[in-house]
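@channel sequence for tomorrow's demo:
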Amino acid sequence: MRRYGKHTDEDDIRARPNPKGNRPRTNIRPKHEDASEGFVLTVDRGRLTCLVEDRTVTAMKARELGRKAAVVGDRVGLVGDLSGRKDTLARIVRIETRKSVLRRTADDDDPFERVVVANADQLAIVTALADPEPRPRLIDRCLVAAYDAGLEPLLVLTKSDLAPADKLLETYATLGLAHVVVNRDELHNGDAADRVREHLTGRITAFVGHSGVGKTTLVNSLVTEDRRRATGHVNAVTGRGRHTTTSALALPLPSGDGWVIDTPGVRSFGLHHVDPSRVILAFPDLVEGTEGCPRACSHDEQDCALDEWVAEGHADPARLYSLRRLLATRERREGD
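structure tokens (generated this afternoon):
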């Protein structure tokens, strides 16, 4: 039965109100061209602390970003309350294109990637020479991740007062790594900071290392006192450090020309996400020799052209050994 006549007046039609009192959904998302630029300093339970000009602003991710998450080091666009006052909240509506992404997985058979930091230029791998004992295998894994991400690695060896650095440095001599060796006294009197800062100026440097190696102590020596973080100690029974850094945090150098990013201590550095063919790019003296390799060559098989390339004197055999040692750290078998 027709409720209204053929020629009804629009004013006579009753409109059912929206029971939820909200606006109808739409697929049209705002563009936010006027969003202010920010730099993500840290992420904590869905709240992001961002630097906007000279202010720190608390923000959350806008719904229109979907599952795309912002991480420390990201350049983002923000709207809303950007005053930085207490109890105010802005929205991150855009994540700019990243120039680099440092990733890791929990294990080699874990397909879930975890983004450690974005837009870093350098990866400082911090390792103690004793208490706890150095873990070359973890260093190798960090190097592979750095090369895959296009970051320049920096090896920082701490606690040289407890053990010499020569043997460990010899292991990585053919890689031509930049390195700094410091002892515990230098970490506290500022001498270590002065030497390390020479490698940090003008860069965004992420610091990684397992717990107890003095990573956060070193980072604290590089920044102003008001930005320092809590530190822990090594367990005398297990020889392992206690996690005191639970989230990544970007801190400016006092000079204002560079950033250091302190990351939580790691127990493992999975490389499930790494394409082995990218690791060779860190060995420019070997790249040309791969032209004769069979398709999908692992660079550690019988028909690998690098053996002949090195035998002809185009590169140091120690360099090929270093490449193959790094590739061997990625233990995940294809098809597993």
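heads up for whoever presents: Residues 58 and 87 are 8 Å apart (CA to CA).
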